[in-house]
Fold these 2 entries.
Entry 1:
Amino acid sequence: IIELVAASKIYRSDNIATLAVNEINLEIYAGEFTAIVGQSGSGKSTLLSVLGLLDKLDEGSYKLGGHDVQKLSREQLADLRCNQLGFVFQFFHLLGDLTIKENIGLPMSLSGLSQKVIRQRTDELLEKVDLSHRGQHYPNQLSGGQQQRVAVARALANKPPLLLVDEPTGNLDSESGEAVLQLLAEEHKGGTTLLIVTHDHGIANNAGRLMKMHDGRLYSAGTDFRP
Amino acid sequence: IIELVAASKIYRSDNIATLAVNEINLEIYAGEFTAIVGQSGSGKSTLLSVLGLLDKLDEGSYKLGGHDVQKLSREQLADLRCNQLGFVFQFFHLLGDLTIKENIGLPMSLSGLSQKVIRQRTDELLEKVDLSHRGQHYPNQLSGGQQQRVAVARALANKPPLLLVDEPTGNLDSESGEAVLQLLAEEHKGGTTLLIVTHDHGIANNAGRLMKMHDGRLYSAGTDFRP
Ligand SMILES: Nc1ncnc2c1ncn2[C@@H]1O[C@H](COP(=O)(O)OP(=O)(O)OP(=O)(O)O)[C@@H](O)[C@H]1O
Ligand SMILES: Nc1ncnc2c1ncn2[C@@H]1O[C@H](COP(=O)(O)OP(=O)(O)OP(=O)(O)O)[C@@H](O)[C@H]1O
Ligand SMILES: [Mg+2]
Ligand SMILES: [Mg+2]
């Protein structure tokens, strides 16, 4: 489902160039659960935003589901982003003017589902993240951890076959974190391909494959690596 | 240094009232290191924003350094916020139009320090958080964890006697988290009163006092409580 070959992403500003992602080769097969760990600033979010079609590579190639993303049209990319990919951002990026229900429903209305189906699925997801009584509130009326849970619910809305998750439990206590992990594991059991960036050893231990990023490079970690 | 008596904070929206902080009594003495743990949504950030003079209480009283904050003028509050209190927000709130150096220097220029002293102190703090080569970048050019470290450096700028910190290691790998904790512990050794909200057991175990919040109420945890 994911195939990166000699992929690099370089940030240039003033006279400094930061090689955030440095000649990475990565293959991820459908149905796998992969965790990526690595120090702060090692390139994890950058790698995820390239895989999530939010950023372009400077060098190398990226094939998603067998298609070379550099050859896809704008409409094809938008369709992939909306229907094939689910993305949980490290800092949520919830839309402040929309209620919690509207935030979760947005991906579904973009892909043309009926209002009835959207309402039902939204209520189901709110229940799963233990926030059913907060649907009418706005993101700034929720705590940090509650917003993180809404971001996870939104990413699951269209039941995407590939889920890219950046640090899903960073702002959660161990109980809430466990519940989010449960939810993601359930999706994985249902066939979703899961890629999670994390500092949480619990998640890293549950994954089928563990990889480590360091200064823009990606290393496949054997079982001896456990952080 | 901090004295709360029957303190409550209520959020009202539409027809739902959330009692985020519920009749809390709290005394913190100068030089103490207190950690507060608690589930997502239990009221930790709300309590910290009341203590940090960012939010007003609906009921009860708050004395900071012996002064009843409800009787202080706007100028006195601004002076307290700038010179007596250091605050690390859960989601950083760095200013996007300023460079990293300017973000760290801002509290010092607000309290009238000379440019020479500001430059020196800023370089010292950047060194302490391992970001000396990034001073000219902007917040959106740093990773999540790097931004968190800048937020800690900014809060230390004026060497405030009281430091309120909300979840300082949520987005950090264990090594970077350890380094931030070291930095805060050093400040505490130098006499700073430290209050940290956290889900990190390492921090909770290092604190002199541990408290737990649940549904807006604050419980003092004996040593048998360790999360
Ligand atoms: N502006 C607001 N309007 C309504 N409710 C609010 C508002 N801000 C916070 N709340 C509610 O008050 C409660 C306490 O929130 P708070 O942010 O203090 O929690 P927290 O303990 O910091 O949680 P976390 O660990 O997730 O950051 C939550 O239920 C939250 O939804
Ligand atoms: N817009 C940008 N301009 C310049 N450098 C950038 C930009 N965005 C990120 N970087 C740099 O690229 C490197 C990788 O950043 P990235 O956000 O991918 O790290 P990360 O592994 O997700 O870290 P964290 O665990 O702290 O979230 C960092 O050194 C960061 O400062
Ligand atoms: Mg990141
Ligand atoms: Mg909070």
Entry 2:
Amino acid sequence: NLSEKIQNTLKKLRGKGKLTEKDVNEALREVRLALLEADVNFKVAKEFVEAVRERCVGQEVMKSLTPGQQVVKIVDEELRRLMGETKSELNISQTPPSIIMLVGLQGSGKTTTAGKLARLLKAEGKYPLLVACDIYRPAAIKQLQVLGEQIGVPVFTMGSNTKPEDIAKAARDHAISQGYNLIILDTAGRLHIDDEMMGELVRIKERVRPHETLLVVDAMTGQDAANLAKEFDENTGITGVILTKFDSDTRGGSALSVRAVTGKPIKYIGVGEKLDALEPFHPDRIAQRILG
Amino acid sequence: LKRCGKIDEELFGELEEALFQADVGVRTSMELVEWLRQRVKEERLEDPEAIKALLKERILQILQRGEEKESINLQAKPHVIIVVGVNGVGKTTTIGKLGKKFVDEKKKVLFAAADTFRAAAIDQLEVWARRVGADIVKHQEGADPAAVTFDAFQAARARNVDVLIIDTAGRLHNKVNLMKELEKIKRVISREDEGAPHEVLLILDATTGQNAIEQAKIFYKAVNITGIALTKLDGTAKGGVVIGICDELEIPVKFIGIGEGIDDLRPFNSRDYVDVLFG
Ligand SMILES: Nc1nc2c(ncn2[C@@H]2O[C@H](COP(=O)(O)OP(=O)(O)OP(=O)(O)O)[C@@H](O)[C@H]2O)c(=O)[nH]1
Ligand SMILES: Nc1nc2c(ncn2[C@@H]2O[C@H](COP(=O)(O)OP(=O)(O)OP(=O)(O)O)[C@@H](O)[C@H]2O)c(=O)[nH]1
Ligand SMILES: [Mg+2]
Ligand SMILES: [Mg+2]
């Protein structure tokens, strides 16, 4: 694992006497490669290593009797600093209904996550309404309805011939008149480079002003995680991230990439296909997973 | 200035960076660049364009490795294709697109709705069946996928179907019981026809990182993958993981998905792919 690699690299070099900057660079190269192997985005890994390097050329490391351990400690601290604290509270509005919008690439797990969130919030005493804003994917509305039925949460739909922004607005009116205090909008998967579809998200946002816009990202995503997160954030403005399929054996470097380029908190992780498989995100656990 | 060795090192660095950013992975990228370094030294290459072209040729070689095993043998009737992969990669959509391709070739196509787990999975495949003009065999949600598979095969025989495509539920390769279920589905088919399945197609999402290699290895071990379809290449991801997969397992990439529409499937062209990789 990375901790061991760093320690071994610097242990070998210490035999030569005083530690030089070149020696530190050698260890940092190990860090960069380990991050890349864990699917952290190339540019993100580079910037992270630069931040670590700045701290490594100080007294802390250069004068230490165990520079390897010092470097590991710094990498660990910088990872934790980057990932932030556990911040899984959703921004619930004072004036209901609170509106949560889920966005992301095709197949990332939005519809399933919508179901999971509805179930969680219902258990917390809220009255959620699921809203079917994916009018494109075959049987998308039916999928949300089946999930809603499983957890006893109603699904608002206007079929697939009404624009998603109009469905969202009608859902909000319906929620107000029927006493739902929370709305979860499930949107269609889309590419961050599809201007028309990205424009649709902006229109939905303008119609109903969601309190939370959560980017749903597949934890197994590689280099592209940084690109897509940046685009969604710049285009739509996200307030948080949910990483799905964390029950896979992926290293999860996408978590670092998404956090680094958007600065937004990762609020939950999906850890299974069933609707109870949603957990608050623990930043220190991802640091563990990436460091190996 | 072009004879200076330092120019080469900078070039190697740039090429390696391009590979990293395309999800080629650390190990495969470094192996490729090391191979290139050797060849450049041996052949005393100096022109950056020639060096880059050499790397492209090497990657092409790797991608074409599995292709010799290729033989579109639609002799068996029904020709059975099982479509597998982790959750959300595009299995069901790819089956729809494949169905269209075969229907256009005047083949009789039957879909088997063997994803009996996920909400509205059967409904989703039914829409595709209608769209392309394929038949469909389905049970109710929660039924045994092996039973659906068995029924579909019998129906394919009875109805004189040319191509039977089996849609399976998304499953993570690290879930042992789900992989066992997949092995059972395959066994059902091979019990009915020992030459079948004629194709076990692994669907990989181009946005997936190094985990794709693990997916390919485990699925290959479980059900002997004969081909890969790389989807969502219409996005910004390059799907570079296939290079390491081809290198290690020699499984050919047969198709690419370039969109959500019925016609958004192309046969894999390794030369085009390599050009885009460095594009
Ligand atoms: N193992 C696992 N599977 C998940 C998780 N979240 C979602 N899935 C599965 O991923 C697949 C895709 O989920 P969907 O909810 O349909 O994804 P989506 O983002 O709504 O897809 P589109 O609407 O087509 O963009 C399904 O098979 C889900 O069961 C998770 O946390 N773990
Ligand atoms: N842009 C793009 N989207 C695609 C492509 N292939 C599939 N999709 C989309 O990806 C999403 C998931 O597709 P599915 O066919 O449901 O994936 P799946 O593997 O069957 O999912 P599960 O059965 O839930 O595991 C859908 O929104 C599809 O439209 C592609 O080549 N390009
Ligand atoms: Mg969906
Ligand atoms: Mg499917």
